[in-house]
Amino acid sequence: MAFYVVQLQFDLAETDERLAVRPAHREYLNELKAAGKLVAAGPFTDQTGALLVYDVADEAELRDILAKDPYTPADVYQLALLTEWQPLFPFSE
User: Fold this and answer.
1) Which listed residue, of 20, 41, 45, 59, carries a Cα 20 to 30 Å from 68's Cα?
2) How far apart are CA 84 and CA 2, in angstroms?
């Protein structure tokens, strides 16, 4: 397994559309968390984007996960960053 960090940049012109899709997006994230694929996620306090950390087999799996996210077909964000990450400290809840 590999950790990946994804930074989303929200399209501020599409805020109403993003907010309309957000419940489905968050439900999808909850499913990923329950499946052990999502480690952490949350929006920036200024609501310009979000940061997500995934635990997946590889980048192909991550891209498949992102393609299935309700935010993707709604076209309300751009990928600002998608990179493999090597944490120095373990995650704890």
Assistant:
1) 45
2) 7
Give burial (CB, 10 Å; 0-12/13-18/19+) of 18: buried
The 10s digit of each residue's pLDDT in 31-73 is: 999 999 999 999 999 999 999 999 999 999 999 999 999 999 9
Judge whether 48 lies within some domain: yes
Which pTM value belongs to this model? 0.93
pLDDT tens column, 19-33: 999 999 999 999 999
Residue 92, in any domain of the structure:
no
* Exposed / middle / buried, residue 52 (Cβ in 10 Å: 0-12, 13-18, 19+): buried
